[in-house]
Amino acid sequence: MNRTSIKNKLILSFLALLLIVLVVVGAAQQVTDNVITALAVSAALALAAGIVFGGIFSRSIVRRLNSLSSVAKEISHGDLSKEIPFLSKDEIRDLEEVFSAMVTDLRGIISEIQQVSTQVEKTAKELGVQIDKVLISSREIDGSALAIAKGSEAQSLIVQKTSLILDKSLEQMDEAAAQSAQTASKANEARLKTEAGEANARETLHYLEEVLKQTSENAKPIYRLSGKVEKIKMVMNVIEELSQKTDLLSLNASIEATRAGEMGKGFALVANEIRNMAENSKNSSHEIRSIVDDIFEDNKAVAAALRKSEEDIAKGRTIIHGIVGTFGEMLSGVKEISAEVKEVGDVARKQVKEISGLLNQFQELSRLAQENFVSTQKTTIGAKHQKEEIQEMVRAANALNALSQKMMKTQQRFRLRGT
Amino acid sequence: MDCFIFESARKHLGIEAHYIHRIVDSVKPAPIPLLPSCHAGIIYDRGDLFDVIDVGRLLDKGSSSPSDKSPYVILLKWNQRKLGLIPKRIIGIKWVQDTADTATSQTVFTSEGRTIQLITPEEIWKLLSDLLYGP
Questions:
Q1: Which domains can be identified in chain B, with CATH numbers?
Q2: What is the ipTM, given to two decimal places?
Q3: Which of A163, A370, B78, B85 is the most buried (most CB within 10 A)?
Q4: A91-141: per-residue pLDDT in tens?
Q5: Among candidates B108, B95, B118, which has minimal Cα distance to B1?
């Protein structure tokens, strides 16, 4: 743009004034010979011209400045609809352009501020609603956090108690595992002893078979003796009968001898002797019978004892058969018990392992519950802080709302084009 | 005199030897009903019937037991009468001092120190006759 500065205008004006002064001085010299007069007239004309030019020039500047000032005054009153008139091309034009640009910018800023304040108001309202919601949520969070804290505390206590119970269970399971191992060892010992017992029972059975065989063999002479004693008793019966007959015969002989009188005295003596012999024989046979009876009774007792022994041995054999069978069953049972005890031990060890894992998990859970409790406490504190902050935010939102309203009021003071 | 001594009714009884006909054994008297309990029955020996009397039961009034009886029966014969006695035990013929009255029972002592009550067959018969009623 072709601009003319005030400085140039002033120089040009001064040069024009100087030219005029020179022209006037030239003209005055021609009119008058008096130099002083010529100078005075020239000076007066120059001064008048200077006043005229100066007045024109200054009026031109003041008028534009006044125009700017009135526009600035209206802007200051919020009217941004006014356009700045560009009346010159000098430095004031720069000022006018700058001022115009400023107004344009201000208009844009105010417009933006309007938008922003509208947005702020809207946002403040939304923020207020959201804050209310957040406040409600925060209260709910606070309540939930408190409930969670209580729950976490209870959970922590339960977990600790459960951990203690599990710990005890673990100890008991450890003991059970140790005991089952001991039981397994004892069951193994029992198995070995049962095997030894079975072997001993078999050996005893074999020995009893031998004893039974030997006893049967030994009993045979006793039974034979019993038969012989029976025969002896029969012989003794015959002897007793004989002695009785002899006794009777001698008695009758004595009676006959007595009846014979003196002649029978000798025969009576013989008969008496015979009777004495018969008596002796009878007594001896009685003694023998008694001895034989004793032998018979003893033999009977021995035979009975042998039979009883045989029966007892047979019973013992049966019992030992039963014992062998029982030992077999016991062995089988002990083997089963041993296997079961081993299985129980394995299960107990597995359980110990699992309970250890469970205990570790419970300890981890306890730690987590503790952490949860601490976190919940922190959450509660955070929720409280959040609540305070939200309240602060509410206050800030309220302040923002108030500010936006104030801004709205303020921006309502500005009048833009088209508004 | 020779005296046949036997034991019965817890006593040693003696009868003069000449009253003794013989001693028998292994005989079973045939019982006769409605006679006193001391009457064991009758036996037949060599053509004679003998009334058999349990002496212990007769003298001891019914306290005799089977163990108190010997297997022998003493057969007596006197004055056409015949009697069999069942003793507990027969001791034998012993000589004892004669007494003045042999018809009545009396007590004598043997050389072995036994106390013997002498008795006659008549006394036994009388005892039987004096029984008032049957068994």
A1: 2-129 (2.40.50.180)
A2: 0.85
A3: B85
A4: 778 888 888 888 888 878 877 777 777 777 777 777 778 777 877 877 777
A5: B95
User: What pLDDT was estimated at residue B104?
Assistant: 52
Rounded to 5°, the CA angle A321-A326-A330 comes to: 150
Residue of A nearest to B18 (CA): A259
Residues of chain B that touch chain A, judged by Cβ-Cβ distance less than 8 Å? 2, 4, 17-18, 20-25, 71-72, 90, 92-93
- A292's tokens: 């034989």
pLDDT digits (tens, 9 = 90+) for A174-195: 887 788 778 878 878 888 888 8
Our CA-based measurement puts residue A261 at a distance from the nearest CA of chain B, in whole angstroms, of 10
CB-based contact B73:B43 (threshold 8 Å): yes
Q: Dihedral angle at the C-alpha atoms of A220, A224, A230, A235, nearest 10 degrees?
A: -170
Strands in B106-109's sheet, in edge-to-edge order, are: B89-95, B2-8, B11-16, B115-118, B106-109
Can you tell me the distance from the alpha carbon of A150 to that of A373, in angstroms, rounded to the nearest whole number? 8
DSSP A248-278: HHHHHHHHHHHHHGGGGHHHHHHHHHHHHHH
